[in-house]
Amino acid sequence: MGARRLGRELALQMLYSRDYAAGEAAPLLELVLDESEPGAAAGRSFADDLVRGVLEHRQEIDTAITGASKNWSIGRMARVDLSILRMAMYELLFRSDIPKNVTINEAIEVAKKFGTEDSPAFINGILDEIASTLPDKG
Question: Which CATH number fits domain 3-131: 3.30.830.10, 1.10.940.10, 3.10.310.40, 3.40.50.1000?
Answer without folding.
Answer: 1.10.940.10
